[in-house]
Amino acid sequence: MCPHSVSVAGDVEMHCLFVEPDAVPALPRQCCTLTISPLLEHLLVHATHMPVMYDPDGADGRIAAVLLDQLSLAPAEELRFPMPADARLRRIASAMMTDPSDRATIEDWSRRMAVAPRTLTRILQRETGMSFGRWRQQFHILIALQRLDQGASVQAVALDLGYEGASAFVTMFRKALGKPPARYLAERRIGAH
Hints:
This protein is mostly helical.
């Protein structure tokens, strides 16, 4: 058993799929984000209506086999926002989720919480493997992808995330993901088919 939790922002539809670890050896062994093709999306939604104890040799079993095949082919992305266990860092994460445009630095947060910046930095590195800047950047990328995928403009997303303009946001996005937002999303959609 692996303890887990999920936090979402905005209008989200979520389906959970639990897979026996040995059922698909090709699946990643660590937590990650997968690009879901339209076929896989439909298979996942269909699986939510299947009985828990479906007949593995029947129609539902064949659908489950195709679903697992497609899942093993889904490309993993480097998109994650690890939630730390430390209460102070969770407070920062919660505040970032409430106001993604807050550009407070680790020093600003340390003053707000009366904690040494080195303490917060050390705990964040230990619990997430990231610096504060990288951690916040990952959060911004996830929010940006969600909003851009819903049709928001790059300018609107940039301002919502506290950037002075679209060019600063696009520069951050390109450094993090290797290409500008429009091209990244277009290639992601093509790759998901």
